[in-house]
Amino acid sequence: MSIKTAVLNGVFTLEIARPEKKNAITIDMYQAMADGLKAAQADGSVRAVLITGQPGIFTSGNDLEDFMKRPPSGADSPAYQFMQALSGCDKPVVAAVTGAAIGIGTTMLLHCDLVYVADEARLAMPFVSLGLVPEFASSLVVPQLMGRVKAAEKILLGDPFTGAEAVELGIANAVLPTGEVALHARRVAERFNAMPPGAVRDTKKLLRRASTEATWQAIEAEAAVFGERLTSPEAREAFSAFFQKRKPDFSQFS
Questions:
Q1: Do 181 and 98 contact (CB within 8 A), yes or no?
Q2: Three-state secondary structure along the chain?
Q3: What are the structural domain ranges in the chain?
Q4: Which tens digit of pLDDT belongs to each residue from 41-78?
Q5: What pLDDT is stored for residue 73 in this prediction?
Q6: How confident is the model at residue 1 (pLDDT cuts 50, 70, 90)?
Q7: Do 105 and 56 contact (CB within 8 A), yes or no?
Q8: pTM attached to this predicted model
Q9: Are 82 and 44 in contact (CB under 8 A)?
């Protein structure tokens, strides 16, 4: 399954654990993450959620081979169940990011409450270069965070950025040495053990009240276009080039 979960000292930890594939996420892993977040939501002993990867790798994004064999289809698909569970979680969600955070690895951070990244972290949203479009409401949230011009740079061009830039752009709270990220994020998550849980939940709802409906509308709008793009000739060329380890040729398209 490659997703590990545990509850320790009031913190539900969701760990992406597939280092042999650079933590690439499969459909089954999306289902496990969705189920884990739903369990954390229902567990009264859980005061916060911590999402992390392996040392030196958060996630390289979707497992493209698995993704093409079993593309997401409809609101019941595991990928969208995960998006709904994370964006709808009323408990604080903390993320610890080291190494690469590609595609969904970056966009899921937009729905966490507190994000801590390593100084060597590299984030990217290379959807367009794969013949696709943004997902997980990133077409809405990214421009809100960093403005239209920077959003175009990060989404249209897919330019990667550092942990320090993630802080500057409003995606992360702080950048830390790689070896300190996981422990710092856990300590922050454990702080919620000493806080009144009802007040924390209500405050999180208030912080997000203006964007909740718009976020899910964006997720649904992106999903519709994303599904169409998956079977487009451009996407087929991009995926073929990826598997053949060559540069894609989009010169034939207009």
A1: yes
A2: CCEEEEEECCEEEEEECCHHHCCCECHHHHHHHHHHHHHHHHCCCCCEEEEECECCEEECCECHHHHHHCCCCCCCCHHHHHHHHHHCCCCCEEEEECCEEECHHHHHHHHCCEEEEECCCEEECCCHHHCCCCCCCHHHHHHHHHCHHHHHHHHCCCCCEEHHHHHHCCCCCEEECHHHHHHHHHHHHHHHHHCCHHHHHHHHHHHHCCCHHHHHHHHHHHHHHHHHHHCCHHHHHHHHHHHCCCCCCCCCCC
A3: 3-176
A4: 999 999 999 999 999 999 999 999 998 888 887 778 99
A5: 78
A6: low
A7: no
A8: 0.97
A9: no
What tokens does 207 get?
């912080």
**Tokens read off for 94:** 């903390």
Structure tokens at 24: 């690439």
What class does CATH assign to 3-176?
alpha beta
